[in-house]
Specification:
The complex is a heterodimer of chains A (420) and B (223). Chain A is α+β, with helices and mostly antiparallel strands and 420 residues long. Helix content of chain A is 57%, strand content 19%. Chain A is built from ten helices and eleven strands. In chain A, the strands form three sheets. Chain A has a five-stranded mixed sheet. Chain A has a four-stranded antiparallel sheet with strand order 1-4-3-2. The longest helix of chain A has 53 residues. A five-stranded parallel sheet of chain B has the order 2-1-3-6-7, sandwiched between helices. A four-stranded antiparallel sheet of chain B has the order 8-9-10-11, with no helix packed on it. In chain B, strands 12-14-13 form a three-stranded antiparallel sheet. Chain B is globular, with a radius of gyration of 18 Å. The chains are: A alpha+beta (420), B alpha/beta (223).
């Protein structure tokens, strides 16, 4: 859920009880005010009736509430003395509404000449049920109007206020350190956002800088290693040729040479990684993966024969991908080399091609390899001494350059996939 | 035949000199741009090994100078950079080959010989060794005038061993030369052996033989 709607959700939950409580309080306050003003009116009416009785005593004979809004009833003096003014609510049939409606009755006493009277005055009352239902309708409307206004306000005003924030996070989402794209933040007048922007910019710059520095370090280190490696290898080779050595001596020197060659290969792989990341392979052409697979299979013929293995290529279509030829060759070669070296001897390797995948499967150790380590640099999951631990890392670098996806699966055989 | 090595790293230079001297070439050396430039102005060389990263100048400029003289030099660029850019620039400027460091001595020797042969400095189209005669142009191998049929890899192995005759060629040097870089990670170079075995069978009649040296490499001897 978006931040904007999140606040709206809580606000709407809070508004409901708030408005309800307010409505109840308002209702009673209003009702009291209405009673007060009705009672005042009734009392005033009594005073008017008293004055009128002096001028026209015949009204004192009025005993029918259906004829007038007041009645007089003679009472004894004792009753007069004991009588207390009272207001009460009752129902009376109203002709206009064809229903019993509430009325307010004021009962009081009156002394005229020497007679004592009880006077009853009625007035039509507010219809509470109507009032409640009216209020309910209006309050519900108010609630929704408030909600809509808040939503609108959020979506228009807050959206505008939060714009720099959303802009910054959208940039962060697309940020990839290896792509070396810059983060551009929008300046904001809001302190918090400005702080966020400044921090993001600073952090990104710092990580980018150290990433580039590390990349350059690897690149420079590998370059600098080439010459001493070359000197050592060549010196040893010369030494081997120049001196008559016995078998043990030759073998130890050869083992030193082997390790130096291994170091050379490792170094070359690191350089290759740097080169891929530095975008040195720019030429692209359509690569027919079936043809390339066949060609590499031929190159590995001797190694396959030696290990008594075979590669079976099964193709449902002939996918063609636009990429650098050298990198495509390295990509497939690494997978195929892995399958040959880590696969069991006397077994076959299956390569399958269809319009959106290239996959290779081989037998090998009987448990799945740790996926999380598999494509990381120098995380060796195999026991072969001569593997540099960089082959799959190189493949990942190549794949991500061309937006291909590389994955691994284990179902009795180890399967690597390239998804186009 | 005179060869000029232009290389600023003294030990690297020494190795290259020793390797090539064993093939009886006359070696001249230069460790910086200035010396190299003046030597190139004065003398003629059959082959020039050129390190393009020199302390006082870009080796590619030297290459331009060499090519401007229009003398029949063979030029091999030697570089620790192995960058595609340098390779293309070098070859476009007229270099004959590009050899990335580090390399095997046997490979250096093979490259130099190949250039000299291509430029026909020894004046011979055929390579004769013992009773074997090879025509590199059409990859034809004859023993006592009898053509023998070698497959691509057997031929490459034989040529490489002949180029480095009487020298120890390590398995990894041979593998890299014949099978290419992609083979580098294979857990052993044992697969070479079956090709060597086939080759030996095919050249039984020849007065040369391929000797295995303690499982480290091979050496081609003339009986």
């Amino acid at each position: 859920m978006k931040l904007l709607n999140h606040t709206t959700k809580y606000l709407s939950l809070l508004l409901l009880p708030l408005i309800t409580i307010w409505a109840i309080a308002f209702y009673y306050a209003m009702l009291e005010e209405i009673y007060d003003s009705l009672d005042d009116g009734l009392e005033n009416h009594k005073i008017l009736l008293t004055k009128r009785a002096n001028e026209d005593p015949s009204i004192l004979n009025n005993t029918d509430l259906n004829k007038h809004v007041y009645t007089f009833k003679p009472i004894s003096e004792n009753q007069y003395r004991a009588f207390k003014d009272s207001y009460r609510d009752t129902l009376m049939y109203m002709y206009n509404e064809n229903d019993f409606e509430p009325v307010r009755i004021f009962e009081s006493k009156l002394k005229h000449d020497h007679g004592f009277y009880k006077v009853k005055i009625i007035t039509s009352m507010i219809e509470e049920d109507d009032l409640i239902s009216d209020m309910f309708t209006y309050l519900i409307s108010l609630y929704f109007i408030l909600l809509i206004s808040i939503l609108l306000l959020n979506n228009i005003l807050l959206k505008k206020i939060w714009k720099p924030f959303y802009y910054s996070i959208s940039q962060l989402k697309n940020f990839k350190i290896e792509k070396e794209n810059k983060i551009i933040t929008k300046p904001s007048s809001i302190d918090e956002f400005q702080l966020l922007n400044d921090t993001i910019t600073k952090l990104i710059k710092k990580s980018s800088d150290s990433y580039i520095e590390q990349k350059h370090f690897i690149e420079n280190a590998s370059h600098e290693l080439q010459t001493p490696l070359a000197i050592s290898i060549n010196k040893l080779e010369l030494f081997l040729e120049k001196h008559r050595l016995d078998e043990d001596q030759t073998k130890s020197l050869a083992s030193v040479l082997d390790n130096l060659n291994r170091l050379t290969r490792l170094n070359k792989s690191l350089l290759l990684l740097s080169k891929i990341e530095n975008k040195e392979f720019l030429d692209e052409e359509n690569i027919d993966f079936l043809n390339l697979t066949k060609k590499i299979t031929e190159d590995f013929e001797d190694l396959l024969n030696h290990r008594n293995m075979s590669i079976i290529i099964d193709h449902k279509s002939t996918p063609s991908i636009k990429m650098n030829k050298d990198l495509a060759t390295i990509l497939l070669t690494n997978f195929m080399k892995n399958a040959i070296i880590h696969g069991n001897t006397n077994q076959q390797i299956n390569i399958k091609l269809n319009h959106n995948t290239w996959s290779i499967s081989n037998t090998g150790i009987t448990e799945a390899l740790r996926k999380e380590d598999l494509f990381t640099r120098f995380k060796k999951v195999s026991y072969s001494e001569k593997s540099s631990g960089l082959g799959l890392a190189i493949n990942i670098a190549i794949a991500s350059k061309y937006d291909l996806e590389v994955s691994y699966n284990f179902k009795n055989t180890h399967v690597f996939y390239i998804h186009f | 035949m005179k060869i000029l090595i232009i290389e600023d790293e003294p030990e690297m230079l020494e190795n290259m000199r020793l390797t090539l001297e064993r093939e009886h070439y006359q070696i001249e050396t230069a460790t910086d741009y200035k010396t190299a430039s003046s030597k190139l102005n004065v003398y003629d060389y059959s082959c020039i090994l050129l390190d393009i990263n020199l302390p006082d100048g870009n080796g590619l400029n030297l290459l331009e100078q060499i090519k401007a003289q229009s003398k029949p030099h063979g030029v091999i660029i030697v570089s620790a950079k192995n960058s595609l850019d340098d390779r293309l620039k070098g070859l476009n400027l007229g270099a004959d080959d590009y050899l990335p460091k580090p390399f095997h001595n046997a490979e250096l020797n093979a490259r130099v010989k190949a250039i000299l042969r291509r430029l026909n400095f020894d004046g011979q189209k055929l390579i004769n060794i013992g009773n074997v005669s090879i025509s590199p142009e059409n990859r034809e191998v004859k023993i006592k005038d009898q053509v023998i049929d070698l497959n691509r890899k057997e031929y490459d192995i034989l040529m490489y061993l002949i180029t480095n005759k009487n020298r120890l060629v390590t398995k990894s040097a041979l593998a890299e030369h014949v099978w290419g870089d992609h083979i580098d990670q294979s857990d052993s170079f044992d697969f070479i052996y079956s090709q060597i075995k086939n080759l030996r069978k095919k050249i039984e009649q020849a007065t040369i033989n391929v000797e295995a040296v303690y499982g480290v490499g091979y050496k081609l001897n003339i009986n």
